[in-house]
Amino acid sequence: MKLVLLGTTGYHPSDTRQTACMMLPECGIILDAGTAMYRVREHLVTPSLDIFLSHTHLDHVVGLTFLFDILYQKNVDRVRVHGDGTKLQALQEHLFHPDLFPVMPPIEWHPLAGPVDLPERGRLTYFPLEHPGGCLGYRLDWPGRSLAYVTDTTARDDADYISHIEGVDVLIHECNFADGWEEHAALTGHSCTSAVARVAQQAQVGLLILVHINPLANSDDELGAEQARTIFPNTYIGTDLTEIEF
Hints:
Metallo-beta-lactamase, Chain A; seven-stranded mixed beta sheet
């Protein structure tokens, strides 16, 4: 199965990265709808799209407003947006308020109320993350393969979500700050490099992909990539448009 990292930064786009959006084209699954959402158009191969939102901060949802162009002359007959019910209601009332966006895209809103069946005999489960305003992490399982998406939270050795991601083949985890910014990371609900690597080590995942990279970072070295690999060797710094088979 192919995973495409469409957008790998947070807060705002940079010259090299768009904000959060991951896609599994063969299943028509999208994780978050940041500014990279416009790139979905080039990877559409299914007649439906299922978009799972971690939360509704703008850098994760603004791409929903791009749907008219994404779907133009494409054979997609159904778009479902899944997430916390209260937050989905807020999107409808505020992001798509007529004063901000005058026409609602063809979205079916699906508040999460339990596990979700996925194509290819898959199953999605979700779990709470600590972040201002609340956030959800996701685990996606298919026979013989698994993936977890954890963004906008503060990684800690005793984080409750570790039990939900144990043994996944691929862990996509936010890493907004280098080591040394722990106090600011905790204040803003984000993570530092070594703490994320320790989470991957504890959860015994196969591959760690760091995303939600600080848009002000000038290089992967600034994030401390090599330091992360001393803790969890199979660490990869996410870059836009990277495709990963798992």
